[in-house]
Amino acid sequence: MKHYEKIISLFQELKKEHPSFSIARHIATAIADYGDIWGMTDKEFLFALTKYQAELNMDTDRIADDQYVSDIIKDAENLSIIENYEDGD
Fold first, then answer.
1. pTM over 0.85
2. Is residue 46 situated within a structural domain?
3. Which of 9, 7, 21 is nearest to 60 (CA)?
4. Cβ-based neighbour number of residue 70 at 10 Å
5. Chain Cα centroid distance, residue 23
6. Would residue 29 count as lying in a domain?
7. Is residue 84 one of the residues assigned to a domain?
8. What is the full DSSP assignment across 38-87?
9. Disulfide engineering: 68 pairs with which of 4, 13, 48, 64, CB 3.0-4.6 Å?
């Protein structure tokens, strides 16, 4: 399958996976770091979209569970206690 057809297929997958996201949102986010895209090839665009899709999937897979995130927040709140203790030495 050529790059163009793969791009179209990828947009269809993205629509199924994230129906509330517009195609413009997908494009803008996928190429945000590329600057001037005027000369971007289909192969490069496909790479950007594939990378974007992988990043979206990582975000939605919730790599860290809620308890782990909660523990990190509690630890961060206790940092000021540690700082105050060390300042008192």
1. no
2. yes
3. 21
4. 11
5. 16
6. yes
7. no
8. TT--HHHHHHHHHHHHHHHHHHHTTSS-HHHHHHHHHHHHTHHHHHHHHH
9. 64
